[in-house]
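Retry 2 of 3 after timeout on previous attempt. Resubmitting structure tokens to design endpoint.
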């Protein structure tokens, strides 16, 4: 009986490895699980970014899937050939120098998502666990043996959050839900880059002062296609 259970466990674990390495693919240019950069941009710059974002006419309910339910944001998809025009189309020219600063030399397709998450005590996760496969090219091949292209890396910079925020970590996991490789505590001005093959989500947070302040981050999915 123990041997049977062990075999089932091994097969179950292998299935997660196959899922991560076959169904979600990148070219493995980013060699780390994740990297953190405290004070990547100044708090003054973060405040300026936040004010321009929340007053942007395109700042609205997030168009992504149910993992992002109840969040707000602005989403653009572009290549390295039309990047400035994409930012300009949503009145985001002020973020273009930031994008150029963090853009990887091997990346040529991008999803830029301004993500605003409301505080909540009612659920465990603000953003459910998921793989980033937002690229529209993934919708072209829907055959049984198709796979999803995931980013080489995802760059996240936190620009606003409640003053006395509790919880809200970015959780990074390998092989489905088996191996936790990172729990990132957000702070204003911090940037984190993580491998696009990681399963990830955001735990719920709340403000000890009971304010309704959103947490806002700039998320750049960097693909090589």
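Retry 2 succeeded. Sequence:
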């Amino acid at each position: 009986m123990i041997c049977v259970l062990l075999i089932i466990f091994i097969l179950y674990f292998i299935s997660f490895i196959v899922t991560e390495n076959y169904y979600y693919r990148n070219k493995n240019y980013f060699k780390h699980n994740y990297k953190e950069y405290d004070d990547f941009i100044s708090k003054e710059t973060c405040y300026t970014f936040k004010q321009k974002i929340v007053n942007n006419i395109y700042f609205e309910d997030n168009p992504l899937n149910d993992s992002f339910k109840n969040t707000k944001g602005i989403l653009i998809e572009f290549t390295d050939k039309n990047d400035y025009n994409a930012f300009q189309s949503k009145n985001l020219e002020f973020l273009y120098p930031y994008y150029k600063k963090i853009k990887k030399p091997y990346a040529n397709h991008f999803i830029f998502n301004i993500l605003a998450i409301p505080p909540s005590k009612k659920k465990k996760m603000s953003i459910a666990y998921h793989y980033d496969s937002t690229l529209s090219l993934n919708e072209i091949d829907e055959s049984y043996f198709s796979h999803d292209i995931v980013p080489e890396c995802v760059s996240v910079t936190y620009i606003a959050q409640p003053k006395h925020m509790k919880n809200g970590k970015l959780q990074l996991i390998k092989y489905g839900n088996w191996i936790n490789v990172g729990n990132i505590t957000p702070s204003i001005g911090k940037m984190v880059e993580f491998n696009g093959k990681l399963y990830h989500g955001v735990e719920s947070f709340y403000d000890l002062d009971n304010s309704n302040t959103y947490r806002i981050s700039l998320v750049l999915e960097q693909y090589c296609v």
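Attempt log closed. The mean pLDDT is 85.
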